[in-house]
Amino acid sequence: MTGQTRADGSLRHLLTLEGLPRTALERLLDRAQEFVCAPGARPPSSRLLAGVTVANLFTEPSTRTRVSFELAAKRLGADVVNLEVQLSSRAKGESMLDTIFTLEALHVDVFVIRDAEAGVPGLVAANVAPHVSVLSAGEGSVSHPTQGLLDALTIRQRKGRIEGLTVAIVGDIRHSRVARSAYHALTTLGVAQLRIVAPPALLPGDDEFHGCVRHADIDAGLRGADVVMMLRIQRERIQDEAQLDSADYFRAFGLTTARLRRAKPDAIVMHPQPMNRGVEIASDVADGPQSAIRDQVRNGVAVRMAVLATVARGRSGADA
Amino acid sequence: MTGQTRADGSLRHLLTLEGLPRTALERLLDRAQEFVCAPGARPPSSRLLAGVTVANLFTEPSTRTRVSFELAAKRLGADVVNLEVQLSSRAKGESMLDTIFTLEALHVDVFVIRDAEAGVPGLVAANVAPHVSVLSAGEGSVSHPTQGLLDALTIRQRKGRIEGLTVAIVGDIRHSRVARSAYHALTTLGVAQLRIVAPPALLPGDDEFHGCVRHADIDAGLRGADVVMMLRIQRERIQDEAQLDSADYFRAFGLTTARLRRAKPDAIVMHPQPMNRGVEIASDVADGPQSAIRDQVRNGVAVRMAVLATVARGRSGADA
Amino acid sequence: MTGQTRADGSLRHLLTLEGLPRTALERLLDRAQEFVCAPGARPPSSRLLAGVTVANLFTEPSTRTRVSFELAAKRLGADVVNLEVQLSSRAKGESMLDTIFTLEALHVDVFVIRDAEAGVPGLVAANVAPHVSVLSAGEGSVSHPTQGLLDALTIRQRKGRIEGLTVAIVGDIRHSRVARSAYHALTTLGVAQLRIVAPPALLPGDDEFHGCVRHADIDAGLRGADVVMMLRIQRERIQDEAQLDSADYFRAFGLTTARLRRAKPDAIVMHPQPMNRGVEIASDVADGPQSAIRDQVRNGVAVRMAVLATVARGRSGADA
Known about the structure:
- The structure is a homotrimer.
- Chain A is an alpha/beta fold.
- Chain A has 12 helices and 9 strands.
- In chain A, the strands form 2 sheets. In chain A, strands 7-6-5-8-9 form a 5-stranded parallel β-sheet. Chain A has a 4-stranded parallel β-sheet with strand order 2-1-3-4, with helices on both faces.
- In chain A, helix 6 (177-188) links the parallel strand 5 and strand 6 (193-197).
- In chain A, 56% of the residues are buried.
- Chains in contact: A-B, A-C, B-C.
- The A-B interface holds A 37, 39-40, 42-43, 45, 61-62, 64, 67-68, 70-71, 74-75, 273-275, 277, 283, 294-295, 297-298, 300-301 and B 50-51, 53, 55, 79, 81, 83-85, 94-95, 98-99, 101-107, 129-131, 315-317, 320.
């Protein structure tokens, strides 16, 4: 994890969960758990990040992930600015870095970067000053580390542990940064078996997801699972690659109540959202008693608070 | 009305003024009056909503109503996030509610919803958790309750009372949520006579505005009025429906100084803005001594503070 | 100058540096210097503007100047709202002022206006209530006063003084509000010689930049300079007016290490950004030891804090 940690081993950036040691992951989950609060309870707030400035750099400003990061930062007392920018290293890497350096000179301490092309968050992280942190909020199809953390936290809350569990990820694994970050988190945290379940066209290449069990049949893939993670299907992708329409996809891979019975009776169902109800998941499953989908969202803001508090350690006047 | 109040009779949502009891309206106006401050004075601010999160869901982010709600919330110490979203129940009601549930899981306590199609604010209110409130910031042509309140407050300030007054609303009543909310507020608050004044094509159907006196002639409509509320005319509507151009409309229904003399000498002039000067109102009237138009704006932020403070009662740590 | 100061001589608006007395400029620079902090240090923050509301009115919301003003205001404790609006006096001056009056009635105390057509910030300033201030954040090609201040502050920091220096501004002077504000600031502050260096098509008319020495040759223009201020070249303008392409422009007017040797050995290089590297400036110069470009950005937020604190004097409850 060269590049994500400081010399003393503490977390400086969060670009990927790949290679993060188990203790680091568990420390983040423990800290996030402290920030979780029940629906309807007053969310925790503090001045831990007073004097710290967080810039959200999103190509599309109205996403729920942006709001999740914004609220996490505000509830810790940080100043937050939102910018809609297109970060690309392709034709104009230097001008992209000029934008970053400008914000850095305005005393931005933490950059939250979303939807830049693959490699951009790492390029930014490699160029900012030592006191500045970069958090990926989703990098191409490569990585979505806070999503991986909130998925792990949700499983730990609902099942009491991650070690020893059987987890099935179902859907467009090939193009999914969510699946990749879940793979990194859950593998490190000692999951017993991770299954990836998809039509052949949506499975990743053999050079990825080492140690995972592959299924092209959802019924086999769900059998005995403790956790079922459904992924969003992009309709345009279905038509182009798998030659299926939405109804066909639902018949072949949609999670219904009947299908969910293949999993353990106490299995939980997860989805990173937004959902296509009736395509990858039936509404009664999404809203049913086994669904942990709203827990995931709630844990998302807690995880982002934990990550911000961890990387900005020592940046704030509040704990100086 | 069912659905706007809690079991104990307190206000939970504000979707419409229709059916709100007079005491509830008066309590809101009294509370708003406490938040009013003179131009140039330091606006009141408090920590009453500390720990409360308000989400502004507007289809068009740069509206003055959005800024009014945003400042009202900030001056009460709330965290505010702005989202530009298109809420529609038509093809994707469930996905709309998924967006709401996601924000709710991020501990959004109050949703301010603008310009969704008719029915959407109520649908959201019917589905959120018990501790969550929904405020309409303008719903199709149905309702604009905070506008109705600020109009009532403005009249009460300038005329000392609402009971016994004669109020003329002039313009495109048929398509106006402002007129409907004014009708509900002023009728409940005991106005003596409410007149609706418009070309026939812009008057509402007979099943609405019960008890109002209808005028197709503005001079008759203004005669002896205490309050003249002008409505914005949408130019495209004039051409389509009434076959008048802007200059013709101004000649027939524009409020000029000469025309205003038909009303009482101390009549006040109101307009919800934005104004089309020279179409529905002459500039010298808009800026003249009888104009209460800027009072309306100032009262708008006070009314929104009062509504937020009322519905979020008990949500904040500040008064827990 | 008339119109920028209050009766007691204190600064009320900041629309231009033209005509501002030297003492006023120096007071702003001194105050800004107090807000400067080292890279990585915790930026100063205060409650000096608690209760003050600042509205950023930008035609394009995602600019670095908007973020600079937003952070400056937030770090002083102000409430900030961002609006994306097109202010134009052309066809609809009254409706533009209605927007301003509405925001004023919402208790906006300071308007920060960007990219309105020439004359708009002054028109707004002439119409707002006495307690309201207007700050230009860039007005057509006329004026960019906070940029002029930050340029002056940067020179003073790096060279210890402004008096007696030779400053060369290179590039599209004709269309540059940055050059005009630098001219006003540096002339008032006693610069020894101000040179404007550009191809003839990009030099201003003879009725402007009085007292400046004009150069059509960059090597002559740089000779012995203490400060080199490079301006952004807009590629489309090059093609239209000067019949040069970017590579030709770089050969003729681009600042390279070799060229910089014509200036004094300790000369500093400045650029208002965004830079076109390889067009008006070589990357190794932009990032080299003589570059003060990041200092300019850092000074930008300090200058904006100083200006806000100066004009909002007495508006806040914190010092009432």
